[in-house]
Amino acid sequence: MTLITGLLLICLGLAGWLILRAAYSAHQTDWKNPFLNILDGLNRLFCRYYHHLHAPVLALPSQGAVLIVANHVSGLDPLLLYAVTNRPLRFLIDAHQYHRVGLTWLFRAIGGIPVDYSGRPEKALKVALQALEAGEAVAIFPQGGFVLPTQFPSKLKRGAFWLAQHTKTPIYPVHITGVKGMGYAVRGVFIRSRVQLTAYPPVYCTSEEEITTCATTVQALFENPAITAQKVE
């Protein structure tokens, strides 16, 4: 080993140590796993400095069931929501994405819930229902797949609102804008953006009769996020 090679390895090792230290300091969600806590910090740094995300942490209750719903434009969206929460989120994930080679172990570790849209999607709703009844935080993209602003209107799937009604769980709507890689799953994560997340006061859906009203309210926020003066910047 030459002197230059040795110095290079030392520099790389030091840089890696500094990155891990910064990531651990940046994490805000306790995943009860040191490795996942480091990933949490790395994701926050990635979203903040690469995608220019400067949104505050969502004002969620520290305990008890919560349901986050957001519009869905790219594969970056889940990372953005992880970066603005301080509780572990259990995402409903398309089964095709869940079973991507090399990623299934990670989705399983963070409590992802695979949804088989071509088979029995109700199985995923049952798992999500159990998670909410256990006081966990669940995140859903009720548009299903990617829906770009030019594709409105797009009717929302009712699963999230059914879950809210059956568990009396508040819905926290979030609107995502500024993503440059709209329409892309993997590429959307790496195309640099200047993103903005707008969080709204919780929506309550306590009866079956209110499901349609809740869905209409959330859909209006997704299609025209400036319609309410109560948004939290």
Automatic annotation (TrEMBL):
Entry keywords, A to Z: Acyltransferase, Transferase
The Phospholipid/glycerol acyltransferase domain, residue ranges: 66-179
CDD domains, alphabetized: LPLAT_AGPAT-like
Name of the featured protein: 1-acyl-sn-glycerol-3-phosphate acyltransferase
InterPro entries: Plipid/glycerol_acylTrfase (IPR002123)
Originating organism: Beggiatoa alba B18LD
Gene Ontology biological process: phosphatidic acid biosynthetic process
Pathway: Lipid metabolism
Single GO term (MF): 1-acylglycerol-3-phosphate O-acyltransferase activity
PANTHER family listed in its UniProt record: 1-ACYL-SN-GLYCEROL-3-PHOSPHATE ACYLTRANSFERASE
Statement: the UniProt record of this protein carries the keyword Transferase: yes
Keyword NAD appears in the UniProt entry: no
